[in-house]
Amino acid sequence: MKTLTPILSTVLVFTFSILLPIDSSARCSSCEVHDSARRIGEREAREVFYLTNKIRRRNGLSPLRYDVGACKKMAQKHADFGAKYALRGKLGHTNFYKRVKNAGLGGKYVAENVVWQGSSHGASPERAIKLWLNSKPHRAQILSRKSAKIGIGVAKDSQGNTYWVQCFTK
């Protein structure tokens, strides 16, 4: 799996707890992604959500709830950042502590998985999940009993590369 090393990042974990209702109209106010791309990204995010819970159920774990609050916004903003600056293969946990604090999640349990897929690599929710599952730390985060909710960010850059971020919370 040497080819995955530059694509996948390590998992960072913090402690936090927050309950937010699902709000399909929630948006990242600083995102510069067109509405049509946002709708496509939300469909893909929901597919990642579905696949993540499918894996969790297969492993005897409770499904996660879909978060559209602070964690979702943090994940989307980070994915948009990757797309805006075309950080191909370099989108990791940059400024994670600062992003957690700015999202209002400081001092709470927060963890994230990040992956980038080039347009020639067949970017899809299924492939993003497969890449995470093939990485021991990312798989452990998906299967963590500490997580109760997940926020997902998806963005595409002008070359069609896809940036995926999973944000896990209690």
Describe the structure.
This protein has helices spanning 35-58, 70-84, 96-102, 125-133, 136-142; strands spanning 65-66, 110-117, 149-156, 162-169. The longest helix has 24 residues, at 35-58. The chain has 170 residues and is an alpha+beta fold. A 4-stranded mixed sheet has the order 1-3-4-2. The protein contains 5 helices and 4 strands. 42% of the residues are buried.
Using DSSP, what is the number of strands?
A: 4
Judging from the principal axes of the Cα atoms, what is the shape? globular
Q: State the secondary-structure class.
A: alpha+beta
Distance between the termini: 31 Å
Helix content: 25-40%
Which strand order do you get reading across the main beta sheet? 1-3-4-2
**Total of helices:** 5
Rounded to the nearest angstrom, the radius of gyration is 14 Å
* Oligomer category: single chain
Helix-strand pattern, N to C?
HEHHEHHEE
Low-confidence stretches: 1-37
Largest sheet: 4 strands, mixed
Strand fraction band?
15-25%
Report the mean per-residue pLDDT as an integer.
75
